[in-house]
Specification:
This protein is α+β, with helices and mostly antiparallel strands. The chain has 2 domains: 2-159, Glutaredoxin; 177-232, Antioxidant, Horf6, Chain A, domain2 (Antioxidant, Horf6, Chain A, domain 2, 2-Layer Sandwich), CATH 3.30.1020.10. The chain is 29% helix and 20% strand. It is built from 6 helices and 10 strands. The chain has helices at residues 50-68, 81-94, 116-120, 160-176, 200-205, 226-232, and strands at 19-21, 28-30, 38-43, 71-77, 109-111, 135-140, 146-152, 190-192, 213-216, 219-222. The strands form 3 sheets. A 5-stranded mixed sheet has the order 5-4-3-6-7, with helices on one face. A 3-stranded antiparallel sheet has the order 8-10-9, with no helix packed on it. A two-stranded antiparallel sheet has the order 1-2. The two termini are 30 Å apart. Bound molecules: benzoic acid. Benzoic acid binds next to helix 1.
Amino acid sequence: METNQINVMPRIGEAAPQFQAVTTQGPINFPTDYQGKWKILFSHPADFTPVCTSEFMTFGKMASEFEALNCQLVGISVDGLHSHIAWLRTIKEKIDWKGMKNVEIKFPLVVDITMEVAKLYGMIQPGESTTSAVRAVFFIDPADKIRTIMYYPLSLGRNFDEIKRVLIGLQTVDHFGVALPADWRPGDEVIVPPAGSCGVAKERMEGADQQLHCYDWFFCTKPISKEEVESQLGK
Ligand code: BEZ
């Protein structure tokens, strides 16, 4: 860990800050232990709170979908190990919410009682809370680079379909060398990068790609089928 300041904000395109920590699944070295995998590091304000419980149940239920996308989930809050363990046990044994019950959280939940990791990742945002982390989500690629960051306030639960859509989108961007339009989902048309930014420029100018659809000179798309997108996910 390099700093203890709260004004540090890691940015998209930067290397994910390194840390060692105790978790509910034993000690971890982040992100080194998960090299070659996608990582989602996400914070929640506090154990034994309702919004956080609803989020953990949702993420826990979807965990196998993220595993299939070669993605390791890692949670973090400024609570201690005993609190984490007791809260996860309560979720599994007692909470029946929206048809979800017996939800077992198998991914690591980081103990950050000193707030060192939360500060390192810009998760302490004093205008919202000085004593707990906001709801942050860091998407970190297999080369350990930060690719997307989301911040939500304490009172608003995250949309986990959107978190999965972002992960699938990033994997699609990397694999096909394309950009993705608003609300993109697998099977929707993708955006061919503008002329000059990659090899497609020449192809476009020569009209070689029959599947290209240009709305104007700066806005061209092409189809990639859902099956083609899905066949590369998690690689
Ligand atoms: C919650 O998870 O319910 C929560 C946590 C901190 C502040 C407000 C709500």
